[in-house]
Amino acid sequence: MVSLNDKDILDVGCGGGILSEGLARKGARVVGIDMAEKALNVAKLHLHESQLNISYEKSSAEDFSAKHAEQFDVVTCMEMLEHVPDPSSVVQACADLVKPGGWTVFSTISKTPKAFLFAIVGAEHILKLLPKGTHEYRKFIRPSVLGQMIRKSGLEVEKTKGMGYNPITGTYSLTENLDVNYMVVARKLV
Known about the structure:
Strand content: 25-35%
Distance between the termini: 22 Å
CATH superfamily of the domain at 60-188: Vaccinia Virus protein VP39
CATH architecture of the domain at 60-188: 3-Layer(aba) Sandwich
Largest sheet: 8 strands, mixed
Shape: globular
CATH class of the domain at 60-188: Alpha Beta
Order of helices and strands: EHEHEHEHEHHEEE
């Protein structure tokens, strides 16, 4: 495991701050950005209670990158690309925000019939893990397409892994299967 001590990390699309908090507990200095005011209010409430080294700001990745280029050792963008109108613009902003030699981590949902079945029919309609309408299949992104966006932004793809969810245990695990949820780790070359 890589040490996050004294690393500057940006959590793009931080929502309620769950990932931001976990990163800060590992010693990182974290900035979380999101456009959802309600989610940021929840994150700020948790921050007040936890006193972790996190700051939250309402901003898009694109606007934030114009002011903070190459300031972060790690940029995460988890489960939000499938919700934005222009995911390639967000990927480019993440690439602009990370320092040379730094890392980006993206996660999203693949554009496959299996992903439609699991993420929309299963998660939203049957198991009701998410509100109906959370996802739109047309916004799902195949791993090859995300890889192209990442390379076009000037990053180098290091690893791609699938994420499997077990609804009985409520746990995720990394897999080789990229049919539903997946992650891509990329690096900005020096």
